[in-house]
Amino acid sequence: MNLPPKVTDRAFERLAEINGTAEQPQALRVAVEGGGCSGFQYDIRLDQPAEDDLVLEKNGQKVIVDTVSLPFLADAVIDFSEELIGARFVIENPNATSSCGCGTSFSI
């Protein structure tokens, strides 16, 4: 049985910083779509939850995954990385058999 993705505390904390004091906080949508140099790519953006989304929540912050993307993200870890070259949300996906150098495209 596949487990849903996990979200690190660091990712939730960064989402809280992004939302700040917004009256209508946005959720972080993590989706998988066809494309990229390896066959699939991640689509990470701010959005509002849809009725059938999986909602992962902590301290009022929400990370959402649509039902089509869920099997591709089973057991994955959604994190936030801050390095000298930039900061971004990253996904450690045990289902990916290979990925490109930029980390946004993968194959299964």
TrEMBL record:
<dbReference type="InterPro" id="IPR016092">
    <property type="entry name" value="ATAP"/>
</dbReference>
<dbReference type="GO" id="GO:0051537">
    <property type="term" value="F:2 iron, 2 sulfur cluster binding"/>
</dbReference>
<dbReference type="InterPro" id="IPR017870">
    <property type="entry name" value="FeS_cluster_insertion_CS"/>
</dbReference>
<dbReference type="Pfam" id="PF01521">
    <property type="entry name" value="Fe-S_biosyn"/>
</dbReference>
<dbReference type="GO" id="GO:0005506">
    <property type="term" value="F:iron ion binding"/>
</dbReference>
<dbReference type="GO" id="GO:0016226">
    <property type="term" value="P:iron-sulfur cluster assembly"/>
</dbReference>
<dbReference type="InterPro" id="IPR035903">
    <property type="entry name" value="HesB-like_dom_sf"/>
</dbReference>
<feature type="domain" description="Core">
    <location>
        <begin position="6"/>
        <end position="103"/>
    </location>
</feature>
<dbReference type="InterPro" id="IPR000361">
    <property type="entry name" value="ATAP_core_dom"/>
</dbReference>
<dbReference type="GO" id="GO:0051539">
    <property type="term" value="F:4 iron, 4 sulfur cluster binding"/>
</dbReference>
<protein>
    <submittedName>
        <fullName>Iron-sulfur cluster assembly accessory protein</fullName>
    </submittedName>
</protein>
